[in-house]
Amino acid sequence: MSVPKYIFQLILGGESEILDFKKTITSVSKIAKTMVSFANHKGGKLLVGVNDNGSISGIRSDEEKYMLDMAAGFFCKPAIDITIEEWEFEGKTILEVAIPKGEHRPYAAKDEDGKWWVYIRVKDESLLASKVMVEVLRKQNSNDGVKINYSSKEKALLDFLTSHDRITIKELCQMLNIARWRAQRMLVNLVSIGVIRVHNTEKIEFYTL
What we know:
4-stranded mixed sheet; Methyltransferase, Cobalt-precorrin-4 Transmethylase, Domain 2
């Protein structure tokens, strides 16, 4: 079938937190990384056979559809139920791959060494999730709710963020003189209920109100 108009509109909008272009599928583990980052976020789409600049190159063979199914079923944990649509444009085939928002987060992708890693989507990148983000995803997906012990330490953190732009885990540990695991637990709870926000846009993760 010929490419529908909305596909061209997606391409014109460029890559984003819910859209990724792939010229080809060369690695099952790498494409699984992108899939789980979407599943751990809002869901998203892959357009395969589309270059980074938005030009259409087309897929090379049906092997790429097989690799997509392999990635979703065996390199993502839990497996992800993707849908693939095939479109034609000027004799070139592109694939529209829809990845739903996950119902069983956090999702992990298996790397080439057989290790499992959780990834999140930040803008147009798939980034390795920190321990705090993994636990936030787990709590947000739980039906148990989040219990907060609002102590003087939580108050001190919120007071600090009222007058400062940001804080890192290291700075929080130093300010409150607490172990890293305790700081992480505090941050996980506060992020999970929406009191503070976690930011992954820089090399070192930081937190704001």
